[in-house]
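Shift notes (night). Ran Zinc-binding dehydrogenase while the centrifuge was going.
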Amino acid sequence: MHALILNGLEQPLQLSETATPQPAPGEVQVHLRAAALNHRDVWIQKGQYAGVKFPIILGSDGAGIISAVGAGVDAQLLGREVLINPGQQWGNNPAAQGRSFTILGLPHNGTFAEYVCVSAASVHPKPTHLSFEQAAALPLGGVTAYRALFTRAGLQAGERVLINGVGGGVALLALQMAVAAGARVWVTSSSAEKIAKAVALGAEGGISYTAEKWPAQLTQQAGGAFDVLVDSAAGPGFNHLLDAAAPGGRLVFYGGTHGAIPQVPPAKIFWKQLSILGSTMGTEADFAQMVALVEHHRIVPAIDEILSLAEGEQALRRMDQGLQFGKIVLQIPG
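Came back to this:
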């Protein structure tokens, strides 16, 4: 098969021929039709991710058709159109992932290839209203957004939501899911264009996080402070989110791209009775419920650009530069 292979630290992805994986007992082989990028792929290429090994086929997101099944797997699955849950072996505790938890694309070969083998429990029916490219844009970002909003923050209809740093796949899916659930959503970004695009997807407004005293301005714009705040940056801006939170608010974050959180005045948290919540990926139940939500509300993930598998290195560079609005997708020949 053809696959994009990363052979070393800071090396470009190489489109090469490699052995086609065969399903072990309990596994299915998926003939991939599309794969999507995540920042994780860039971090692995740069050596900024634990457990890096080479050679490796990157890619956590993928959608395709089941083309073979291993021993013990129902043969009726053959030919099914599916998307893949990239979270493997979550464990028995729904509150947090276990020590055996891994994400597709490292340490095991991922979806930047014509074929991949995964546990039969990891594949879910592709929502009927989505193309393969749209479905491939959903898994990692979708389950991360769903768990952050609903499992961790307990979002309810009518609540005000603030999504900090809109533009990436998780943030946009969180926006779309929150709107579908009946919440009122505002966003921040350093880009006026990204804020305008977020409004087109259902946000009620937004503000640049570079603006002076932006929490007060956005709170006035929204008619009140925010019940749920979603963040992936952390860093110095974290204090601003505490200022924007309503009493009893829940601040959930799933990343820390801006680094460590500086000293926080404790009264900002205890006097407002805030909840600070961490979230990572999601359980099999989270994933199934996310797919059901997307199907029911016919949510279509925002796609920035669709490129060919051979353009994988170009796609990584676009993501590294932070130019995208939505997911960058690789189309894989059928």
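Residues 87 and 103 are 5 Å apart (CA to CA). The first strand starts at residue 2 and ends at 5.
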